[in-house]
């Protein structure tokens, strides 16, 4: 396996776990959202605000196609990336796809202080945040659960999650 895709809802730890995993494998780590921002010289929230979600999803798909050709990479995807076009199929066909699963309550707790940087969350109260995350997870679950592996991350450390994924790669 030459690439690993980490998928899951925003705030589940994909970027942090990705860095730990890449270090352990001596691979590169690529954060998909950062790659989009660098390529298009715009923050994700600015793309959403000025061009809309559809334009963002097309840019995201283009970047995914590029990343699926790279070797020895851990890709930390955006939370919605697996849910559009046939992106989840591309990820499963070109690498090991791992869903970092967390409960809505645990995600809301993590995300309540980062709302300003998250276009989909910025105007939500704490109560609205948990409800919104629950609704989003219900919509995204059919896509997330197509990953080859699922790691529950409510209580685990990024190091433990990275170790579990390394074990999967070695088995």
Strand order of the largest sheet: 2-3-1-4-5
CATH classification class: Alpha Beta
Query: What is the ordering of alpha helices and beta strands?
Result: EHEHHHEHEHHEH
Secondary-structure-based class equals: alpha/beta
Would you give the CATH topology? Rossmann fold
Instruction: Let me know the number of strands.
Output: 5
Characterize the overall form.
globular
Q: Average pLDDT across residues?
A: 94
Residue runs with pLDDT of under 50 for 5 or more positions: none
Strand count, sense and barrel status of the largest sheet are: 5 strands, parallel
* Helical content class: 40-55%
Radius of gyration, taken over Cα atoms and rounded to an integer in Å: 15 Å
Notes on the protein architecture:
- The chain has helices at 14-25, 32-40, 44-51, 53-67, 87-94, 104-111, 126-144, 158-170; strands spanning 3-7, 28-31, 73-76, 96-101, 149-152.
- It has 171 residues and is α/β, with parallel strands linked by helices.
- Helices cover 54% and strands 13% of the residues.
- The mean pLDDT is 94.
- A five-stranded parallel sheet has the order 2-3-1-4-5.
- The chain is globular.
